[in-house]
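Please check this today:
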Amino acid sequence: MVAGTAGAHQPRGAVALRAGRIAWVGPESELPSDYRAWPRHDLEGRLLTPAFLDCHTHIVHGGHRAREFEMRLEGASYEEIARAGGGIVSTVAATRAADEAALIAQALPRLDALLAEGVSCVEVKSGYGLDIDTELRMLRVARRLGTLRPVRICTSFLGAHAVPAGAMADDYIDTVCIPALRAAHAEGLVDAVDGFCEGIAFDTRQIARVFDVACELGLPVKLHAEQLSHIGGTALAARYGALSVDHVEYASEADAKLLAASGSVAVLLPGAFYAIRETQLPPVAAFRAHGVPMALATDCNPGSSPLTSLLLAMNMGCTLFRLTPEEALRGVTAHAARALGLRDTGIIAPGMRADLSVWNVETPAELAYRFGFNPLHQRIFGGVTCN
């Protein structure tokens, strides 16, 4: 198939698709003769972009935490809620109580909301089980979602997400987290290993123990770090060559240098920043100065970022973090793909997967400019039109 498109005051472009891949891209006037007889689809001047990737989500979970939303409005902090038995631990109980069918039924509407905005790939984390059986169940559900919808699912084992009530962190790492990781890997359920390095979760020494096992198993790592304080998670992740370091509001310029050297992506999560009314901005200027790629994601989760709109995350990235619209678009395409370790998506180029989004806009900036509005015209997944 040859798809033709053009932006305002731009020459017509063309993209040739074959067997789920991009075969050629360029000005329509330069379309090689080999492709001229192929079936054509005129996009009538609409904008064509790579399909979006949401590179940080927790869409598989039980229950909700609307009461915590009220508590935050009443003045409680994220950390105060967590220490009072809310936060991640409260979702653990609801997730443990849900079987696979229930978790799938709850996750699908969240996934569908993302797909409706041109998303083709979603990262899904475990971390709301905090026991071996539930962690494995969450990962099985994540894999199952990829068979129920035209979407690519990347899984992250997040056993080191929180310390269960009554447990000691080191004992939990030994008796639950690492055995669960080994079991999940043996079952083929893990694409990457994540952790939450923060004062209310795990310190750098404990995360390092989990990362050592990930390295032994040949799995890449990523990390929630420097969200609420600065305890050295970014430096730790850089030392392990992490795919990404996520949140990073309290990261420093020294951290930016380390990320640049390690090739790690800084994943910005403005939904969580907004929902918990954070005031510490991530060091975007330092990331720019040192050439650190910046991705954007929803961080869709039941507590600190109940967000299922990557378009809104783009607008928030620009409005709250002062990203440019071009940076926001790269953040949900090329840089999001890099944050997931994917080399075959995120850009429009020969040989890449034909995962594309067609938009009813004239310029890329319009995607980040509007909010509460979805201009998607068509989503193409593996060369097949999905709507």
Summary: The mean pLDDT is 95. Residues 131 and 176 are 6 Å apart (CA to CA). The longest helix spans residues 169-186. The first strand starts at residue 2 and ends at 5.
